[in-house]
Amino acid sequence: MCFFVTAVLPPGTAPASLAGIFASAAMTCVALPNPKVVGLEPGEVWASTTCGRCDCGTVIGSVLRAPSSAQVDARDLAKLRKKGWSEARIGRWVAEKDKARAKLERIGPRPGAEEAASAIVEALRTALTVVDYVGLVLHLYRGSTASERITLRERRAVRAADLGEDDVRSLPEDVVLQVVRS
């Protein structure tokens, strides 16, 4: 299990057209076809931004992955039970979350993580010179990046002029941070 950050791009966008801009934030932009992503608009492009092996330790969403947020909320368990999950399945899910959180605590944030947030904000703003909007999504993958089922929970539209480092640091998993022109 590893975290990966992906970009959501407008229909018809060639990810390569943003690769140089994303490189300024130590990211890439490569098409990552995954027909199992639920919540994309028709024609939107799903693209990997990962330069290395994974994005564990990324500054994106880091505030929400702090050790204090590692506890499983009783409301989460109630929702899973309501969905019909067995206690054994819930136990496996909790164990997976614990394992992922332990890994994050072990590796900690990447060196230069604070500077990375600023670079990501600048890259997203610069990307708007090429496209009408750009989105970022953080997801904890349990399987293949090309075939894992992902349900996007919401889109948070933020004007480029209002985008700040806190927006990047506080991005929850499976939520699109959609940056739009001012």
Overall number of strands? 8
What characteristic shape results from the CA principal axes? Answer: globular
Unreliable segments of 5+ consecutive residues: none
Rounded radius of gyration (Å): 16 Å
Approximately how much beta-strand content do the residues carry? 15-25%
- Give the biggest sheet: 6 strands, mixed
Mean pLDDT: 85
Q: Roughly what percent helix?
A: 25-40%
Task: List the secondary-structure elements in sequence, H or E.
Answer: EHEEEHHHEEEHE
Provide a descriptive summary of the structure in words.
The chain is of the alpha/beta class. The chain has five helices and eight strands, in the order βαβββαααβββαβ. β7 (154-159), α5 (165-169) and β8 (175-180) form a beta-alpha-beta unit. α1 (16-23) packs antiparallel against α4.
List the helices and strands and how they pair.
Blueprint: E1 2-9, H1 16-23, E2 30-31, E3 37-38, E4 45-48, H2 74-82, H3 87-107, H4 113-127, E5 133-141, E6 150-151, E7 154-159, H5 165-169, E8 175-180
Parallel strand pairs: 3-6, 7-8
Antiparallel strand pairs: 1-4, 1-5, 2-4, 5-8
Keywords:
5 helices, 8 strands, 2 domains, globular, alpha/beta, 32% helix
Brief sketch in words of this structure:
By secondary structure, the chain is α/β, with parallel strands linked by helices. It has helices spanning 16-23, 74-82, 87-107, 113-127, 165-169, and strands spanning 2-9, 30-31, 37-38, 45-48, 133-141, 150-151, 154-159, 175-180.
